[in-house]
Amino acid sequence: MKQADAAANTLEAEIDLLVYRLYKLTYEEVLLVEPGFSLSREAYELVEGHKAASV
Length: 55
Hints:
Oligomer: single chain
Radius of gyration: 12 Å
Order of helices and strands: HHH
Shape: elongated
Strand content: under 5%
Number of helices: 3
Helix content: over 70%
Number of strands: 0
């Protein structure tokens, strides 16, 4: 059951990140929505650049 919980948590975090990017939230806005956000500003902006480059 722990593996299923871990997989669900990982999937939820990935979906959250996709939603934040979909709505073009800034890092500061993400922190307002999710104060415990686990990515650093640099990592979040890297995801933004990667997604923009691949579209």
